[in-house]
Amino acid sequence: MRLTSSFIAGTLFAMGLAIAGMTQPDNIIGFLDFFGDWKAELMFVMGGAVATLAAIKRFTASQRRPLFDVKFRIPTRRDVNPALIGGALLFGAGWGLGGLCPGPAIASLATFEPDIFIFVAAMAAGMTAHTKMERHLEKGN
Amino acid sequence: MSFLIALLGGIVLGLGAATLHVLIGRVAGISGIAGRVLSPDPSERDWRSVFLIGLVFGGALMLVIAPGQFAVASSSPSAIRIILAGLLVGFGTRLSCGCASGHGVCGISRFSPRSLIATLTFIGAGALTVAVAG
Predict the structure, then answer these.
(1) Range of the domain at A117
(2) Do B12 and A16 touch (CB under 8 A)?
(3) CA distance A108 to A95
(4) pTM of the model as a whole
(5) What ranges in A41-113 are assigned the alpha helix state H?
(6) Contact B91 A87 (CB under 8 A)
């Protein structure tokens, strides 16, 4: 049930992204184009998602553990550090350049478009570079 | 009309994130799931790989139902630009521990100040990039 749940969650997530048009880089770039022909749709996507998730969490707040696992694993960090800001700046730059973030890019692999494969491969390389850097820094300490 | 569709998409996406939360207690942050899919712990690897397969499956389903929702190759940017964008997105999301889903949706839904600041920062950086290199 644990893995079936995860599969269903991923499927719903991708369907939502595609319905919302987040799988079209033009919509992302249109949202980021505050000084040009601004498209406000992404605000509605985020608003709908945040409200749905927050409402369901509120309804299930008395739940002491997830239905098919032993405990909740939710991030608890609240600190704002240079890595958070620096990483968000780099991500934002890449988001503006390509009009794709990780979710829509992976969901779009289904199209077999060469551009999507190039993007996802580069994204995986960027993630691997970060993992290598972290290991290197850990060794240094 | 397009705002209603965007809202509907957001709700379905939120249902996906809520499914992961309520059923297995995990956060639907795609960069974290993709970046740690090769985790040494098998019980953290399995649900992540299955989630990613679900993500592609959901994409395939929508491609059948509404093919117009996906990018078409006609307005394709250069390969160098795509590679640079991918590298920045991959490295940046791991460095800041989250992307539009992890910070923008899951983090904001639990009122995390970290996520709110990250979200405003990547939207700002994205807007600047589009203004300069769009």
Answers:
(1) 2-140
(2) yes
(3) 15
(4) 0.95
(5) 41-59, 82-98, 102-107
(6) yes
